Amino acid sequence: MRVAGGWGVAGLVSRWLWAGLLALWLLLPSAGRATLAAPGLCVGPVCGDEISRSAKYHWQLRLRVGDQENHRERILVDCRNGGISPQLGPVDRAYAAAVARRYCRLTWPSEAPSGAPRS
Question: Could you tell me the residue range of the domain that residue 100 belongs to?
Answer without folding.
Answer: 38-107
